[in-house]
Amino acid sequence: MIALLLRDLRLALRAGGGFGLGLGFYLVLATLVPLAVGPQPDLLAPIAPGILWLGALLACLLSLDRLWALDAEDGSLDLLATSPLPLEGAATVKALGHWLTTGLPLTVIAAPLSLLLFLPTQALPWLVISLAVGTPALSWLGTFGAALTVGLKRGSLLLSLLVLPLYIPTLVFGAEVVRRGGEGLSVATPLAILGAISLGCLAILPFATGAALRANLR
Amino acid sequence: MSLWEYANPRRFMALSAAVLPWTWGLAIALCAVGLTWGFFFTPEDFRMGHSVKIIYIHVPSAFIAINAWFMMLVTSLIWLIRRHHVSALAARAAAPVGLIMTAVALLTGAIWGKPMWGTYWEWDPRLTSFLILGLFYLGYIALWSAIEEADQAADLTSILCLVGTVFAVLSRYAAQFWNQGLHQGASLSLDKEENVADVFWLPLVVSLAGFVVLFLALVLLRTRTEIRRRRLHALTLRDRLA
Question: Structurally, how many domains does chain B consist of?
């Protein structure tokens, strides 16, 4: 499992693919929003939590279609399926690798980007915390969606249609944590639900992903 | 007679051919009675006037839209556990009907919302979760049509349906958490106190039954079409090989 994780991380870092791309996309999005709606701080500050969460979600989505597709193309997915490691374990490792190369960097880079959008200072820690708690759910859901569409030729468009509705609860509670944090309200309820969604995804989705991969490999 | 016998498409075709005309007849009769009664023989509501009559389409279509997904969940489970082929096809057949019913519920709601709330659309939890339900239907149908191999498509869409159910329900509560609503509460719950008044309730129940039977007829019809399409496909393949 560790070998698989290290291989995935190495591929992500050296092939120069998803790792930089997702972050670059996030930066571009945070730049384009003020250009589109105007530079006034009183206009940007209220929508900043939503934009930052939406950007993280879309950046996550970008790197998903390569997640299983590359392995399916060069045949290493078949090797994974025949290896002693169950596919559920492989799914967990893949999702973890995706989170380490996408979710975690996004969480880190969100703090400087929030300055561009005039996010209130007291909301900043909650932005980082909510992204850290919520992005695992995005990675695990994305791994599941990518497993569903792995056999398809034009899977990436379908993938976003399948995965984005699944992201809705995470987005709602994540952005709510930041909004409440910015207004100085209690964030305990949405944060707890966000954590529950992430933990539920961690517990259940590897099985769904494994089943989807098995159906695709048959 | 058991459910499992009808995993054989020929048995299913024989039974559904016998049942389908009766189902259509009953659906048309119930809808005609319920809608006519509702439109022409009920008093006007003292606050809403004429516009209350749209309830006889709005509520049944919303009811079907939700329960079609529930039916897909059950049939998907039956397919995953017992490899009941007709069950997988029934799930596929129900999805577009559910999507149309979602659209009908949203549209009639918009038409009703304009005179009552002064707006076609409001980000009310119920409206929002219906829109999200529509998105789930879209993804499900798109996945079905994207995969060529039939059993594989049935497997993958069933898994999507199971996961999608969890997240559709979660989205419903997320939407409730996120915004307060304009929409009234339950109009059909078993708790008598919450219901609409009896004059409106009786025709509503009749048209609701009509929509349920109509849904049944449409799903049977679409399942039969799908079985025939498969048979045709198999025959053309056999011809090509010969």
Answer: 1
Is there a contact between A166 and B156 if contact means CB atoms under 8 Å apart?
no
Closest to A161 (Cβ–Cβ): which among B139, B156, B177?
A: B139
Q: What are the tens digits of pLDDT across the range B173-185? A: 888 777 765 666 5
Contact yes or no for B147 and A152 at CB 8 A: yes
Instruction: With respect to residue B71, please indicate whether it lies within any of the assigned structural domains.
Output: yes
Element housing B110 (H / E): helix B85-117
Please answer whether residues A8 and A93 qualify as being in contact, where contact means their C-beta atoms are separated by less than 8 angstroms: yes
CB contact under 8 A, A172 and B178: yes
Tokens, residue A134: 């919520």
Q: Select from B204, B159, B90 the least CA-distant residue to A213.
A: B159
Q: Which CA distances in Å does B20 have to B24, B213, B223?
A: 6, 10, 11
User: Which tops the pLDDT comparison, B197 or A133?
Assistant: A133
pLDDT for B182: 60
Report yes or no on B8 lying in a domain.
no
Contacts of residue B141, defined as CB under 8 A and 6 or more positions apart, other chains included, come to B95, B96, B99
* Cross-chain Cβ contact A161/B142 below 8 Å: yes
| Rounded mean pLDDT, A89-103 | 88
B positions 167-186 inside 8 Å of A (CB) = 167-168, 170-171, 173-175, 177-178
Q: Is the pLDDT of residue A17 over 60?
A: no
**Chain B CA closest to residue A166:** B167
Judge: A215–B170 Cβ closer than 8 Å, yes or no. no
Alpha-carbon distance B76 to B81, whole Å?
Answer: 9
* Mean pLDDT on B16-40: 88
Using CA coordinates, name the residue in chain B closest to A213. Answer: B156
Q: Which helix (H) or strand (E) holds B143?
A: helix B125-146
Q: What angle do CA B25, B30, B36 make, to 5 degrees?
A: 125
- In this prediction the pTM is 0.87
Q: What is the pLDDT of residue B189?
A: 52
Query: Which of these, B161, B163, B157, B158, lies nearest to B143 by C-alpha position?
Result: B157
pLDDT of residue A145: 92
Residue type, A205: L
SS3 state of residue B45? strand
Considering the domain boundaries, does residue B90 fall inside one?
yes
Report how many helices (DSSP H) and strands (DSSP E) chain A contains, helices first: 10, 0
Could you tell me the CA-to-CA distances from A68 to A9, A139, A141 in Å, in that order?
14, 13, 13
Q: How far is B101 from chain A (nearest CA, A)?
A: 19
Considering only the beta carbons, identify the residue of A144, A190, A218 that sits closest to B163. Answer: A144
Inter-chain contact B160–A162, Cβ cutoff 8 Å? yes
Which pLDDT score is estimated for A218? 78
Handedness of CA B57, B62, B63, B65 (dihedral sign): positive
